[in-house]
Amino acid sequence: MSEFKLHPTRRGFMKGSTAAAGLGALTLSPFGPAFAAKFPSRNIKVYVPTREGGGADRNLRAFTSIWKNYLGVNFQASFYPGAAGRVGYEKYMGIAKPDCYELLFGNMGPEVLNWVVKKPTFDLNAMFYFGQMDRDPGIIFVGRKSKFKHIDEIVAEGKKRTMNVGVSRLAHPATLGVLALGRHTGARFNVIPLSGGKNTRAGVATGEMDFGALPSGGIARRGKNFRILAIFDNVNPIPDKIKNAVLVNKHFGMDLPPLIAGARAFGIKRAAVDKYPDRFKILTDTMNKVYGDPAYWEVLKKTKVPMALFTKSSSQAEIEKYVKDITAIGEKYKDLLTGKT
Amino acid sequence: MEFDPGLFIGLFARTFTFWWVILPAIFLGLIVGAIPGFSAANTIIILLPLTLAMDPEVGLIFMVALYASSRMGAGIPAILVNIPGTAGAAATPLDGYPMTKQGRGQQALAISFVSSVFGGLLATVITLLAMPWLSQVAYYLFSVEMIVVMLFGISLIATIAARDTLKGLIAGFFGLMIGYIGADVVYETPRGTFGFLELYDKVPLIPALVGLFAVSEAFAVIENQSILSERGKAAMQKAGWSETLEGVRIALSKWWHITWTSLIGLVIGVVPGAGAAIAAFVAYQQSRTFSKTPELYGTGHVEGLIAPESANNGVTSGTLVPLLVIGIPGGATAAIMLVVLQYHGVTMGPDLFMESPELAYGPFAAMAVTYFIMIFTILPLARYMSQITVVSTIYMSPIIISFTLVGAFVPRQYMFDMYLALVFGVIGYIARKTGYHTAAILIGVILGPLLETYFLRALKMSEGDLMVIFSSTLANVLWVALAASLVLPYLIQRRRRLRRGQEAAAGGTTE
Question: Which domains does chain A have, with CATH numbers?
């Protein structure tokens, strides 16, 4: 576990270095003093079940760099990578106090699937997600030098020989999409978990893997190194960036739910919300203000991730439906995810 | 990515004007490199607010200078007190620390500095000149080939076992078993974790490293008044500036050794995820294989110190190649650099070399200038740094233990890791007292998980066909080289013994 304090902006740094340490956070925020007497009166700790430097780290920094202005306190992220997110969740559920000062920030899709494959030690209903940040569908992509120009060529090749597919991990919406496509078309796709997006991109870029499956954002912004051939969603969220890709359901006549591979959101213990509903309300109210803050969108622009992949608001009903859908499809393809077939 | 002398000369000249950034970064890097648990990666994370606020070019130069100097800094405690600051310096104490015990700590530091600087400098210049070809290495070294590369490093266990076969092999396999603790890389199933959540992500390297080397050393040295031998103490009392100069002379006389071992580092560094530890062990193993005096390795042999130090500095520029050419960082520090550059809107990839050559080639110019400045700043310090070895073990042992326990805590900030370092310290102490080699255990701990990752990946790709390990031409060439490097030293030794026997017999007959 390692920690950072979230001060990513130049302005934040300048303020932090010049203002008196105790006064800085409160006086610089227009909303700080109002809330300081009640909640929150100290920094908020965020448990991240992945390593620094990935998509969750990037999104968390962006969101909290603005959110802290509305809450008047800083966010302190702690990273607990390991066992496909299991370590971070188990740590959060095991040691975090249910007082709304300790949150979790994860990628719902892979992490919900992880619990389908291997049950956690805690009660899954003892926590829930809120504040979704992005909606990034799973895609199939190839390297710049790949001979495959269309998904049909991949499926045709997969019927002749077993193709190796680089994926971030087995329990992942994008992996599920590839396995479902293989089962539907009769193509033989052998998924190889490469422990994260960085390694997956490397495996595909170097040609060790025939193709890969990941969330679209990280690949679309490296458009010159990769080509996206298929999308596991019912719409192309970034048509200006993904030009010649097919929608898997439409193209192959399948009925997969949208396999949103990048769906980062905050998590909280249900007991914290039951005990302190007023605190949770402050969290969600201020969070909603972040979505409408132009400064937030300026920060997001700098990440180079296509802006259309970030959600403009967060709907609790949509989050719950997404978790339910992913759990259901995970159960359906559990045999493939656990290597039992 | 074509060679343009004008561009490079201009770039170097411009980079020198940033000496005011490079100099503090060097000192910071040396300090964080020397403290176990700290590294360039976590220091850059801590300093993110600073680097994000900097101009991208200045920020990049700062990060590169810190990265290169931290690599060198990690070798200092490895040589002086048997504490490798990072896994990349794990092979350094094998010969560095025995030199210190003999009272040659100052000389060892000078040798290490010169090897690091020239190894790093050479690798950087070669990277600049051969970028288009080097970037292709990642397109040929796949999982199957990497299995053999890992085995080159792991075969060091066999080398160590040559002194006491049974104990060497037991220590090596014990280390490999520890290395396999944690969730497997395919199905993420936890194995051998004893229910500890903290072990799901494998046995953390720094606690294992500092426990096996430093804590066990602290337990062992407390039994004596000084870490120096009697001869060592006498040598230290006489040591003056000449020791540093002698170290420089010795290192420079081994220029060819520095050259080829740094190239091993460079090639391994280019492969994403391989890292400095494997490079250092492979270089050490290869150095011993081709040595005329392999029996001297592990006793304070100069070449045994040069090989890992020049190799792990060769890795430094290598890890930046995949980052800049295909946008994929070769290691943890490069990954953090990517975050900073992306924040400034810099997109990595081949186009960067056309659109912003100063940013694409800049890191290498910064690295070369850093190494150049570093040699003048650090060499005069060797004499003073080596004085730490005369401190009585009554003070030294508690200092080592407290420093290393903090170091064990820092990377993940788990209290568990401090206890783990103590457990490894006890294991290391028992190993020392019973004649088992701690380095053999450590090689297993460091390289075991990497070997397993590549092996399982290759097996999964071949759908369980074991013959996959012989499925590529390059891998087969590497297999032959591996077999040769294991068998040849034995044959050469045998031939030498026979010749000596014949000469002795001939001498006896003459008399």
Answer: 2-135+263-329 (3.40.190.150), 137-260 (3.40.190.10)
**Rounded CA separation B28/B69 (Å):** 8
Q: Does A1 contact B45 at a Cβ distance shorter than 8 Å?
A: no
SS3 A148: coil
Q: Which of A1, A163, A206 to mutate to test the interface with B (most CBs of B within 10 A)?
A: A206
Candidates B342, B373, B332; CA nearest to B25 is B373
Taking the C-alpha atoms of residue A96 and residue A266, their distance in angstroms, rounded to an integer, is 14
Q: Which residues pair with A47 in a beta bridge?
A: A78, A104
Residues 287-326, chain B, touching A (beta carbon < 8 A): 322, 326
Q: How many CB atoms lie within 10 A of CB A340?
A: 7
Element (H, E) at B243: helix B241-253
Closest CA to A40 of A60, A64, A57: A64
To which H or E segment does residue A137 belong?
Answer: strand A136-143
| Distance (Å, whole) CA A72 – CA A85 | 30
Per-residue pLDDT of chain B (511 residues; tens, 9 = 90+): 555 677 778 888 888 898 899 999 999 988 888 877 777 877 887 787 787 778 888 888 899 999 899 888 889 989 988 888 788 888 999 999 999 988 888 999 999 999 999 999 999 999 888 877 777 777 888 899 989 988 888 887 877 766 677 888 888 899 999 999 998 888 888 899 998 999 998 998 888 988 888 888 888 888 877 777 777 777 777 777 888 899 999 999 999 999 999 999 998 888 776 678 888 999 998 898 888 888 888 889 999 999 999 999 999 888 888 778 767 676 777 777 777 776 676 766 666 776 777 778 888 889 999 999 998 888 888 888 887 877 888 888 888 888 888 888 888 888 999 999 999 999 999 998 898 888 888 888 888 888 999 999 999 999 999 999 999 999 999 999 888 888 887 787 788 788 888 888 877 655 4
CB A55 within 8 Å of CB A108 = no
Across the interface, whether the CB atoms of A303 and B342 are under 8 A apart is answered yes
Enter the ipTM: 0.81
- Cα distances from B450 to residues B92, B173, B274, B277, B447, in angstroms, run 20, 15, 8, 11, 5
Listed in sequence order, the DSSP H helices in B254-361 are 255-270, 276-289, 302-318, 320-326, 332-343, 350-355, 357-360
Binding-face residues of B in 32-91 toward A, CB within 8 A? 42, 45-46, 48-50, 52-53
How does DSSP classify residue A5? E
Residue with tokens 């220091």: B43
Q: Which two tokens stand for residue A252?
A: 């192959």
CA-based nearest distance B343→chain A, Å: 6
Contact between chains at A190 and B50 (C-beta distance less than 8 A): no
Structure tokens belonging to residue B505: 């017999």
Residues of A in contact with B343 (CB under 8 A): 8, 302-303
**For the purposes of burial, counting CB atoms within 10 Å of the CB of B335, is it exposed (0-12), middle (13-18) or buried (19 or more)?**
buried
Three-class SS state of A206: coil
Measured between alpha carbons, how far is A18 from A12 in angstroms, rounded to an integer?
10
Residue ranges covered by each domain of chain B: 5-471, 472-511
Residue B357's Cβ-count burial label (10 Å; 0-12, 13-18, 19+) is middle
Judge contact between B211 and B425, C-beta under 8 A.
yes
pTM: 0.80
